[in-house]
Design goal:
Layout lengths: L2 H19 L5 H15 L4 H16 L11 H14 L11 H14 L5 H13 L4
Helix pairs in contact: 1-2, 1-4, 2-3, 3-4, 3-5
Length: 133
Amino acid sequence: MDNISKFYADAQRIKKHYRANNSRYDGQKVCEEVKGLFARNNPQVKSLALSFGDYWFNEYIVNSAEMENEPTQQHLEILGAMQALMDNEPEQTAALCQKDWQELCSLTNYEAEDLPIEFLNDIMIIFVDHQAC
């Protein structure tokens, strides 16, 4: 199982456990837990992962009309695409729109000073390929 598949499985497990252990489902709380999973999945660049997670949460979750179903499959795919970006697997980033690319590039530029140089080089190549920077 690759890292992206494991991420999806872990996120679904979080949803399932929350439903099993709570009488009322709270999509926002579950998304907070999934956002924490994303940060834990990227300990080498935790600050950037937290920024990406905050962007995802604020852009896709906070104003969702489907809070009782959050994170939806579509929204998980967006966060999974961000995980693929972190893992230098650009072929799995199709769920990201141009606005996402630009925002993620901006967040990466902001954090650049604290990122490992090899990681930064790899991720910036992907951003340039997507005309995000």
